[in-house]
Structures are given as C-alpha cells and as structure tokens.
Amino acid sequence: VGGGDGTLNEVVNGCFRDGTLIQPDVVLALLPGGTGGDFRRIIRINGAEDAFAALSGGVTIAADVGEVSYRDLDGSAGSRYFLNVASFGLSGVVDRLIPRYKRFGGRLGYAAATVRGLWGWQNPRVALSLDDGDFDATLRVVSVAVGNGAYFGGGMKIAPDALVGDGMFDVTVLGDFSRLELLTMTGSIYEGGHVYHPKVMTRRAKTIEARLAGNHSEGVMLDIDGEGIGQLPARFAMTGHQVRIAVVPGVCA
C-alpha cells in the first residue's frame, strides 16, 4: 500500500465483501506517504529502508479490524472498516480542515487545522455507552477516540496503551476542556501524558455507541483513520476479523 492512513483504510475496506474478509491470508505492506502517517508509527516504518525491510523480512503481525456504523452527511446509513483510530468531535472537524494545511506537513498541518477548528467550537453533549451498558454516561466532550492503534492526528499518542491485535479498543474521552486548556495540553497529547488529566477518561471495550444528547449546530463529525466520513449517531465494534501486516523484524505492535 503506497500512501498514508487514508489509502491504507481504502485498501482494508477493499479486503471485505458483505462483511467477510475476502482473502484471510492476505498480507498488507506499507510504503509510507500521506499527511498524518499514524499507522506507520505503530509498526515503526519511518521511511523506505524500513519499508523494504518489512517487505523482505517475512515477519507479520495480526491487526484487529473495527467497523463503524454511522449516519452519513445526507442522512443515510453508512458503515466503514478501520484499522487504527476512529473518533468524533473536534477531531472530525479537523479532518475536514486538514486539506487546507497539508502543505505544512503532518504535525504542523494538524496543529494549524486544530487551531482553526477551535474557532467557534462548542463542546457537544454526547450520550456514550460501552459494551451494551457496562458504562453509560452523558457528558460534554471535545473528542472521543476509539483506538485500535495508539496514534492519530499526525502523531498524537491519543491511546498510549492500545495494541492493534489484542481484540479490544482503548477508548479515550477528552472531556469538557476550554479552548485554552486544550491548547496548553496539546504537547502532552503527543507524548501520551494527557491520560492522567482529571478531564480525560480512559476505558477498554469491544463496542461503543454514541449519539448527540443536545443541540449542536452542525452535528458531531466522525474521523475514521484520518478521513472525515459521517457523523453521530455511531456504533463502533470489533469485527472479530484480523488482517496480517508486514513489519520490520523485531517490531511488536
């Protein structure tokens, strides 16, 4: 797969037909490109040399595949598979803004899109349910990330303990932060230290349901592997399927 997170997501979705993995023995190898490059961070492919080592080394890992069912922007029902992180809230707004800032590169581009997205942003009230009621709450959020992998947004370590093959999502809720609070803690999100903040909640689950619980002028937008697709309400679920990913020998994800 030559490209970034969005291209990898397209290929993963092309591996399925009618809910079934077409070829269970398929192995995906990544030649890194694109803007964010978040999945390549998980498997530590930092450039061409690493990519060729993964292609030739014969070592693979099994990565879980998640699925998001959501409402499309025209009101129709949609669904999409994902390999890394699916999220909603400010992150969905940033996805729609990032094309304007791609010329700045990954981290700087996402930072610029985040600052722009905060202009006029109001934290929505969202009803969140995990594993069919094991956790139920209605709360104001900046973003909620459902992490199969650890990174999103051009290198933010949003779910620092996530493992792509453990059969569970790591859910990170960025709560009712003010704009200033969010801007001042951006550095800690890149490092993974945000999980210790009192306004951040982390949980592990196999299914997550979310819906808007109050008025929000533009709906609550989704981000699926770095692509701005759909809006709440949405359901995130482990499919039980895994795909093989070529990695540099010695790398565990």
In short:
This protein is of the alpha+beta class. The chain has helices spanning 5-14, 38-42, 48-57, 90-97, 106-118, 179-184, 186-191; strands at 2-3, 16-17, 20-21, 27-28, 31-32, 60-71, 77-82, 85-89, 125-130, 135-140, 143-147, 169-174, 200-205, 207-212, 222-224, 231-246. The protein has seven helices and 16 strands.
What is the quaternary state of this protein? single chain
Tally of DSSP helical segments? 7
Q: How many DSSP E strands?
A: 16
* Low-confidence runs: none
- Rg, alpha carbons: 17 Å
Protein described:
The chain is α+β, with helices and mostly antiparallel strands and 253 residues long. It contains seven helices and 16 strands. It has helices at 5-14, 38-42, 48-57, 90-97, 106-118, 179-184, 186-191, and strands at residues 2-3, 16-17, 20-21, 27-28, 31-32, 60-71, 77-82, 85-89, 125-130, 135-140, 143-147, 169-174, 200-205, 207-212, 222-224, 231-246. Strands 4, 6, 7, 9, 10, 14 and 16 form a seven-stranded mixed sheet that branches. The protein has a five-stranded antiparallel sheet with strand order 13-12-11-8-15. β9 and β10 (135-140) form a beta hairpin. α4 packs across α5 (106-118). The longest helix is centred in the middle third of the chain and has 13 residues, at 106-118. The mean pLDDT is 90.
